[in-house]
Design goal:
The protein is an alpha+beta fold. The protein contains 13 helices and eight strands. The protein folds into three domains: 90 residues, Butyryl-Coa Dehydrogenase, subunit A, domain 1 (Orthogonal Bundle); 110 residues, Butyryl-CoA Dehydrogenase, subunit A, domain 2, CATH 2.40.110.10; 128 residues, Butyryl-CoA Dehydrogenase, subunit A, domain 3 (Up-down Bundle), CATH 1.20.140. It is 48% helix and 15% strand. The protein binds flavin-adenine dinucleotide. The site of flavin-adenine dinucleotide has 19 residues, from strand 1 and helix 13.
Amino acid sequence: MDMLNDPALKAFQNEVRAFLDANLTDTLRAAAARATSVFIDPAVTLPWQRILNAHGWAAPDWPAEFGGPGWDEIQRYIFAAECARAGAPGLAPMGLKMVAPVIMHYGTPDQRAHYLPRILSGEDYWCQGFSEPGAGSDLASLQLRATPDCADYILNGSKIWTTHAHFANRMFALVRTSTEGKAQAGISFLLLDMATPGISVEPIRTLAGDHEFNQVFFDDVRVPQANRLGAENEGWSVAKHLLTFERGGKYAPGLIGRLERLRARADLDPVMRARADREAIGLQALQALELKAMRGVGGSTALYASALKIMGTEAAQRIDVLACDVGGPAAWADADGQMPADLAVAVPRYLNDRAASIYAGSNEIQRDLIARIVLD
Ligand SMILES: Cc1cc2nc3c(=O)[nH]c(=O)nc-3n(C[C@H](O)[C@H](O)[C@H](O)COP(=O)(O)OP(=O)(O)OC[C@H]3O[C@@H](n4cnc5c(N)ncnc54)[C@H](O)[C@@H]3O)c2cc1C
């Protein structure tokens, strides 16, 4: 990263490195290295989030007025890159990166004051209730009904593929409050307490055998209308705002960290090394694009969010295949526990990452969105 020729940024990088050296324990590093999914178990991520929060660094992207460190976009990128290089566990995005920005944008002063500090501290752990059995890519066809009753809504229906709903005490959800007009026009955005009577969570096992997501059932669940974010029937705008944060992540730093650990292996066969080198060049290009996106150069936020989602997830899947090939047959059954962590989890990670081109809006849908933006 050429910008590190800037002495102030170099000093910032050194400060982050010193913090990571002092605070990122071997236990946390080992748990992160063994993780098979981007959605790491909160037993690993929350202790790290508390350490970061005590230092004011749990939410690098948040403005200072809400408890962020007040960094500019380059500092945030350096922080993400250093965390990845050091092997720190990625924090759950649903609270810090997804619902928090929309609470800042659409929330009432009371909602901001209540929820944001609890997201920072990890006291509230969020899940995302958007998809339903009949509404995935075509999200606007969602049916979970919220019927007004005095100062509440009564919810009936179900949400599916709800990542970490079995850990979460909060859910942000899209619900149908009207069947009049266009499908998008009758949707509202609610903030729910998962302990509310009538909510039940049923596990769904993934291809890799993990319990990561769930189906969540709502049976006459009473939610105060005061828990609505934004106006009634205008939840679609809130959701679109949120999805740019869900998709527009920083993919390159984590992937570069992973690939560097593979490339550092002395016993890497020349063919594998050539493949790894090719991926490394691709990641440099991805990183350059992420930096352009952060500076808002050359395209809209929505265009970058879709393009980076496609490029980042496809690169992750190619690196998964490479890790399986480098590990060879032994990566399929690390019976004696002797494989380095990256390779020991190569196969479950490969299986888990098949989902990366589906969640947060499938990559086919992202291509549709790009075509529409470009052709408009
Ligand atoms: C691991 C994982 C975690 C998830 N976590 C959550 C979560 O926490 N909360 C949540 O709400 N949802 C979550 N999801 C759901 C995810 O958002 C949906 O799976 C996704 O939107 C696709 O919807 P679908 O599965 O119903 O597939 P469908 O919409 O039925 O799509 C099936 C296939 O058809 C293609 N397709 C559909 N429409 C078009 C079109 N117009 N043009 C071109 N191709 C099209 C799709 O690309 C896909 O390949 C998760 C999914 C996964 C896999």
